[in-house]
Fold:
Amino acid sequence: MTMTRSPLYQEHAKSASSMTTFCGWEMPLKYATSIFEEHLATRKFGGLFDISHMGRIIVSGKDAPLLLQYALTNNAMALEPGQAQYTFIPNETGGALDDSYLYRIDQDRYLLVVNAVNMQKDYEWLIDHKHKFVSVELEDCTDSIAMLALQGPKSKTILETLFGDGPKLPGPARNTMGTAKVLGKEIIVSRTGYTGEPIGFELFIPAELVVNLWNNLLEIGSTMGVVPIGLGARDTLRIEAILPLYGQEWGTDVEGSEIPIFAGRLAVNYVSFSKTKGDYIGRNELAKQFDELRMRLEGGLDKQPIELLVPRMMMPVLVLDERIARTGYEVYLDSTLVGHVTSGSLIPYWKFEGSGVYSKPGNQSGKRAICIAYIDANVQVGQQLVIKARDKWLSAVVVSRHLASEAAPFARPILFKGSDHV
Structure:
C-alpha cells in the first residue's frame, strides 16, 4: 500500500522520534519528547499539530447551501460567512457516515473537513447527491491546502506575534473564522480544534507555504514552551476532552451494530430539525432518536416499553485502578454486561495551584486512567462499574466529564472526589 505524506514529512522525519502509519498517511507518533510530555506541554503552554491528513472539500456555487442542508445534520444556512460548526454526514438509518466540520467562507462557498479514513467515501457520497442540485461544485483540496492546529494557552500570543499589526484573530468565541496574510498569501484562521483547549486555532494554508509557516510558528512558540505534537498526544488530548473519533465512537460498535448519532451526548447541538432546513438524509430516523431521548429525560420510556433506538450512550469513565481500559474491553454493572470501552488511555494532568478561575498549573503532574465507554443509556453518573481487562477486573466509575474548558486560558482536569486521583 502506498503511503501518503504530508508536505511537512521531511520536517517530521528530522525531528520525530517515532513515525507511524495512520489512515494511509505516514505521520509522527511522537517527537523527541514522550507522549505524556507533549500532552502536558499543550495543556500548560501550547502544541503545534500537523493535521494535513484530514480531508478538505470545497463546496461552492449558488446551490451549495442546499446540498449541504440535504447531506449534513446541521443547519448550514444558519451559519453566517466567517462561522463554523461541528456536524455529521448521516446515512438513511440515523447513523454517521462521518463526523465533520463545516466552515462557511462566504455566501456560496463552504469548506468541509472530514476524517482521513473517510475522505474518498465522503467525497463520493456528496457527488452521488450532487445531481439533485443545479449549481454546485465540489473540489477535493486535500493536497493543495495544508492544515495546522495551534492549541493551548499561548496559541493566541504566538499568532499575534506572527501577524504583528495585521488582522485581528477570530474569537474569543469558538467556531469563528477569518483570514490573514502570511508569507504573501492569504490563509484561513479558525477558532476550532480537537483538544478541548479553551484557546486554540486551526490554520488552512497553501501547501507550498506550510513548511515555512510550521518553522516560523515553532521558532516563536519554542520560547514560550510550545512543542510539536504527534498522533499519540493528539489521541490522549481528545480522549480527555471526550471528543469522538470515527471508527471508535462513530460507525459500528464491537458487536457489529450501527452506533446511532444521538448516542453522542452533544448530538442535540449538531442535529437540526428547523423548518428552514427542511428534509434531509436520515431526518426521520434522527427525529425518532431525538424523541426517544426526550422521553427518557421525562421518564416516559418506562411507561411505554419499546425497542430502543438509542440503547446506549457514550459516557466518560474513570478507571480507579490506574490501568488502561483498552478499546473493546467489556464493561459491567454488577454482573450485567452494559457495554464496551471505545477509547481509553493513561492520561497525564497538571496539578493546579490556587482556586477557581485564578488557578494555574503548577510544576507537579499526576496521571489517571480514563476512557470513553459505549454503555447502556440508563447507567447514571456516579455509578460504579467494573471493566474486564483480559484476566483482570478494573474498578471504574461513570463521571460527568474529565476536563473543564470554561475558564480560559487553561483547560482544567476534573478529578474524582474520594479517589487517589485527587
Notes: The first strand starts at residue 4 and ends at 5. Residues 4-49+143-237 form a domain with the Gyrase A; domain 2 fold (CATH 3.30.1360.120).
